[in-house]
C-alpha cells in the first residue's frame, strides 16, 4: 500500500501533514498542520460544535415526532425520517472530528477510523439518494393527481421497504471507502486517518473522486432535475379535469417543502462537488486562501445536516402541531 499522505491533496498539490481542511477523494478530511492559522484552530471547533449540537437536537426531535405521532406516519415522512437518521448519525461522530482537529493527530485506532470515514461517506450519499426518492415520489403524486388516478401501492409499508433498499445501496457504494480507510504515519511521524490507496496512487485518487462525483452528484441531481422539469411541464400543459383542477393544498405544501429541502441540500453540497472537479482539472497551490476556501466548503456541507429540521418546522404544519402537542404532553 502506498503512504496515504502522498494522495492527501486538494487539486494536485500536496497539503502536507497538518490540519488544514481539504476535500480528498470525495470525502471531507482534516489534515494536521503545524503551520495552521490560529484562527482556524479556534474557529473551526466552534463551528463544528454548533453544527453538532443543533443538528443532533433538531434531527433527534424530527425522529421522535415522526415515530411517536400517529398523524406523521406518511410516505413522505418515512423518507424524511431516514434523512434525519442519516444526519443524526453524522452529527453523532462529529465530536471525534473535532477532537482530531484539536489534538493534531488521530488517537482512536484503525477500526474507528474506518467507521468514521464510512459514516462520513454515508452522509454524502444517503442525503441526496433519499431526496431523489422523495422527488420521484412527488412526481408520481403530481402525475396521479393530474390524471385523477389513485396510487394503491403508495403505502407507508412500501416506503419502509424502499428506504431499506436505499440503505443497502448506499452501504454497497460506501464499502470501498471502508476498505481503503486506514491509520498511517506521515513523514513527521504524525498519526492520521485517511484513505490509503495502492499504487498507482494518483490513479486511485482520481478514480475515487470521479466515483463520488458521478454517484453522489451527477446521476441523482440529473434525475431530480429531469423529474421536476417533467412535473412542471405536466402541470402547465395538461388540461386538468374537474376532479384535478389543481393539487390540493396539502399536496402542494408537501411538494414545496420537498423542493425547498432539495434546494438547500444542493446549495450546501454543490460547492463540495465543484471542488472535486477543480481538483481533477487544476493544480492549485496550498495558499492560505485555498485552504480557507476548503474549510468553508467543508463547513457548508456539514451544515446541511442541521438545517433540515428547521425547514420541516417552518414548512410542515403537521410537524409543528405534532411537536407542540408532544411538548404540551411532556409539560403536563
From TrEMBL:
Main location: membrane
The keyword Ribosomal protein is annotated on this UniProt entry: no
Highest taxon in the source lineage: Eukaryota
Entry-linked CDD domains: 7tmA_NPBWR
One GO CC term, this protein: neuron projection
Swiss-Prot/TrEMBL keywords: Cell membrane, Disulfide bond, G-protein coupled receptor, Glycoprotein, Membrane, Receptor, Transducer, Transmembrane, Transmembrane helix
Domain G-protein coupled receptors family 1 profile: 58-312
Membrane topology of this protein: Multi-pass membrane protein
Protein's name in the database: Neuropeptides B/W receptor type 2-like
Source organism of the structure: Python bivittatus (Burmese python)
Gene name of the record: LOC103056050
Amino acid at each position: 500500500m502506498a503512504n496515504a499522505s502522498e494522495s492527501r491533496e486538494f487539486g494536485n498539490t500536496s497539503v502536507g501533514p497538518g490540519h488544514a481542511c481539504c476535500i480528498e477523494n470525495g470525502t471531507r478530511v482534516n489534515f494536521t498542520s503545524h503551520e495552521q492559522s490560529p484562527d482556524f484552530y479556534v474557529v473551526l471547533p466552534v463551528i463544528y460544535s454548533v453544527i453538532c449540537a443543533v443538528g443532533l437536537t433538531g434531527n433527534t426531535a424530527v425522529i421522535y415526532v415522526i415515530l411517536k405521532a400517529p398523524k406523521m406516519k406518511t410516505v413522505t415522512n418515512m423518507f424524511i425520517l431516514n434523512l434525519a437518521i442519516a444526519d443524526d448519525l453524522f452529527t453523532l461522530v462529529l465530536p471525534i472530528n473535532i477532537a482530531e482537529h484539536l489534538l493534531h493527530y488521530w488517537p482512536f485506532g484503525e477500526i474507528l477510523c474506518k467507521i468514521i470515514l464510512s459514516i462520513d461517506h454515508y452522509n454524502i450519499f444517503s442525503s441526496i439518494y433519499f431526496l431523489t426518492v422523495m422527488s420521484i415520489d412527488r412526481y408520481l403524486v403530481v402525475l396521479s393527481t393530474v390524471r385523477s388516478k389513485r396510487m394503491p401501492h403508495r403505502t407507508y409499508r412500501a416506503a419502509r421497504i424502499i428506504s431499506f433498499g436505499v440503505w443497502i445501496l448506499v452501504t454497497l457504494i460506501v464499502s470501498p471507502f471502508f476498505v481503503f480507510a486506514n491509520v498511517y504515519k506521515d513523514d513527521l511521524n504524525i498519526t492520521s486517518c485517511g484513505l490509503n490507496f495502492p499504487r498507482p496512487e494518483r490513479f486511485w485518487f482520481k478514480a475515487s473522486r470521479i466515483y463520488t462525483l458521478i454517484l453522489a452528484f451527477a446521476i441523482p441531481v440529473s434525475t431530480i432535475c429531469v423529474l421536476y422539469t417533467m412535473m412542471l411541464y405536466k402541470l402547465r400543459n395538461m388540461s386538468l379535469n374537474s376532479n384535478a383542477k389543481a393539487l390540493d393544498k396539502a399536496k402542494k405544501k408537501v411538494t414545496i417543502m420537498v423542493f425547498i429541502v432539495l434546494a438547500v441540500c444542493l446549495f450546501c453540497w454543490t460547492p463540495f462537488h465543484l471542488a472535486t472537479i477543480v481538483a481533477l482539472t487544476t493544480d492549485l497551490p496550498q495558499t492560505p486562501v485555498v485552504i480557507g476556501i476548503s474549510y468553508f466548503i467543508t463547513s457548508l456541507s456539514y451544515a446541511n445536516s442541521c438545517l433540515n429540521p428547521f425547514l420541516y418546522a417552518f414548512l410542515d404544519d403537521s410537524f409543528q402541531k405534532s411537536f407542540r402537542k408532544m411538548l404540551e404532553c411532556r409539560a403536563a
